[in-house]
Structure formats: C-alpha cells, structure tokens
Amino acid sequence: MARNPSAMKYKRQSDKSRTLNRSRKSTIRTYTKKALVAAESGNLDEALQHQQTAISLIDKATLRSTLHKNTAARKKSRLIKRVRQLSAQA
C-alpha cells in the first residue's frame, strides 16, 4: 500500500487510467463484434457503419496511448479483412 503522498497520487492516477483504458478496449471489442455479426447476417450497411465506428475508436485509443500504433493497425486490418470476407460470402 502506498504511504507517501506522491505514491498515493500515482496510485490514483494509475487506477483512473486503468479504468479508462479498460472501458475504451471494451467499447472497441463491442463494435468489432457488432460489425462481424452484421456482416455474417448479410447486412452490409450496418456492418460498414459499425466497422467505421470501431476504426474511429481504435484511432482515438491510439492517440490517447491506450493501444500501441502497431496493435491498432493490426486490429483495423484484421477487422476490414474479416468484414470483406464475410460480406462476400453472404
């Protein structure tokens, strides 16, 4: 447990950033899944809308240092590839 004021402040800051980062990552996963489910069901317009939202959230998370830039690029690339693949099948 932190005892001196600077350590206590750092603990508060890290707890706050952890909460924000978890929330951002969860939202990204939610919209990614929504895009994939919509693409599987053949609803291309909805899939593209959720895909754009997920990509926007990934970019914002990268700017705020929640995700590394290479991780963000990989997530976006895989999402676009998977949506295209599923929409071509449907």
Question: What's a concise summary of this model?
Answer:
The chain is built from 3 helices and no strands. By secondary structure, it is mostly helical.
Structure write-up:
The protein has 90 residues and is mainly α. It contains 3 helices and no strands. It has helices at residues 5-40, 44-63, 69-89. The relative contact order is 0.13. The model has no long low-confidence stretch (mean pLDDT 95).
From the structure above, extract its key features.
90 residues, single chain, mainly alpha
Topology readout:
Layout: H1 5-40, H2 44-63, H3 69-89
Helix pairs in contact: 1-2, 1-3, 2-3
Q: Major sheet: size, sense and barrel closure? A: none
Category from helices, strands and their pairing: mainly alpha
Rg calc? 17 Å
Note the beta-strand portion. Answer: under 5%
Spatial shape? elongated
The poorly predicted ranges are none
Helix content: over 70%
The termini sit apart by 55 Å
Return the average pLDDT rounded to an integer. 95
